[in-house]
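Blinded run. Sample ID left blank on purpose so nobody reads anything into the name before looking at the predicted structure. Input follows.
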Amino acid sequence: MESWDVEGVRAGVREKAARDPERACFGAETHRYQLTPPLPGAEIRAFEETHGIELPAEYRSFVATVGNGPAGPCHGVMPLTVPRPQAGEEWAVDDAWEEDRQPGRLSAPFPLAEPLPGRMGARADTLSRGTLMLAERGCGIFIRLILNGPRAGEIWQFDPDWGGCVPVSPGFRAWYTDWLDGP
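Blinded prediction complete.
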C-alpha cells in the first residue's frame, strides 16, 4: 500500500487553514480545512467488493490513513462513503455523488484512451463511467479518478460544456500534494 505521512498532511492542512482564516481561497468555505476520520479497511474493501473495483493504491491509502475527505482541492475531496455524522452534524451528498455510486457505474470500462478536449454535452454521463468523482470545481465541472484501463490512477477534469475530458494529474498523491503545497 502507498503510505502517506499522515501527520505531515494534517499539519499541512492546518497551515493552509492558518494562512486563510477568512476562508477566502477557492473551496475553503465548503471543506473548511477539515479532515474526517479515515475509513476502516473493512469498509473500504466492502465498497470495492460492492462496486467490483479495486481503488488505486494512493487514493485507497489516503482514505484508510489520512481521512475520508473533505479538506482538499476544489470544493474538497468527496467522501468515498458517506461519513457517519457526529452528534449535531448533518452530512448531505448531492445527486451527482449518489449517481456516481450506482451499481455497475464504477466498474464499467473507462471509454477514453486519450483526452477529449471540447464540449461533451450529453455524452458526459457515458464518458465518466469507470471513474470516481473526487471533487467538484463548480458549474458542473468534476475532478475524477480513473479506475480502470490504461489511464487507471490518473486524475482527469470533466467539463461537459467547454473543457471536455482532460488529465490534470498523474495520480491522487500528486493532485492532493499540489493543493497542499500550493497557496
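Unblinding after everyone has recorded impressions. The chain has seven helices and four strands.
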